[in-house]
């Protein structure tokens, strides 16, 4: 239960501290507000009513007891060594949507308690060095990262969630040992330039999202490390083939996204995936569905009922599929067929 809650917080937490407090104007283009015992500070031109182009550097004299510091939507180009001096109580930092391309190696040294860092929509080409050991969540999507060096996340054993999609990184950009030491529950590398499932990702993962890439196939041992996966996202790729038995390395998988690919048949492993409940196969090239494509034969093997199967936008007619095909589906409304339009 604790691990599942951590994954959920990874998905929704960015919304929590943005809309909670009412701004009160201060100098330095910053506003502060109090939520319970927490001090929230937000800095940017939108708070003063001015038409300026935003801050170009981190403001000075930010209160030392600040818990949440919001610097998003400015024009900051660099994080310097002493930008966060004295902010030892900081819990979350957002520098989202700036122009940051450089971070001093000691920038984050004072932030001993920081758990959440939102760094998306900047100009970083690498992962910032010496991130705080306390960090739990890192969002660094929509940057210019092409390489993740070995040891890039060294010392970050508390990290639970990394969102690094929409970076122009290829499979070769991940050096061996890039994720060494991480015990992640959630990882997203969507909208990148991957042509295959990356190697040596953390084996602790519960959720892996590789949607919107150029992955061609899933080979036999591509997923062999990820026995703890609950959810796998491979939608919007170029997948034509999923090698038989490759999905059986995922004994706990509950949700599988294979929509918007180039599959011509239902993956052969589905009947043997005991806990699989949701599978997206819409917008492929599947022209026929066999009676045993989803459910185990006979009654000897126990399997969780499906809550959702999507097959719409495939060149298969629903009236050609035998009703017994969906004998292990909990509700007929869980099957989404629709009409195929070429």
Task: Please give a quick description of this structure.
This protein is mainly beta. It contains one helix and 19 strands. The protein has two domains: 1-189, Leucine-rich repeat, LRR (right-handed beta-alpha superhelix) (Alpha-Beta Horseshoe), CATH 3.80.10.10; 215-342, Ribonuclease Inhibitor (Leucine-rich repeat, LRR (right-handed beta-alpha superhelix), Alpha-Beta Horseshoe), CATH 3.80.10.
Task: Give me the secondary-structure topology.
Layout: H1 2-16, E1 24-25, E2 30-35, E3 38-43, E4 66-70, E5 78-79, E6 92-94, E7 102-103, E8 116-118, E9 137-139, E10 161-163, E11 186-188, E12 207-209, E13 217-218, E14 231-233, E15 241-242, E16 255-257, E17 278-280, E18 308-310, E19 335-336
Pfam families: LRR_8
Keywords: Disulfide bond, Extracellular matrix, Glycoprotein, Leucine-rich repeat, Proteoglycan, Repeat, Secreted
Disulfide bonds: 295-328
Series of secondary-structure elements, N-terminal to C-terminal: HEEEEEEEEEEEEEEEEEEE
Number of domains: 2
Structural class: mainly beta
Number of helices: 1
Name of the CATH class of the largest domain? Alpha Beta
Distance between the termini: 44 Å
Pfam families: LRR_8
Function: May be involved in collagen fiber assembly.
Protein name: Biglycan
Organism: Nothobranchius furzeri (Turquoise killifish)
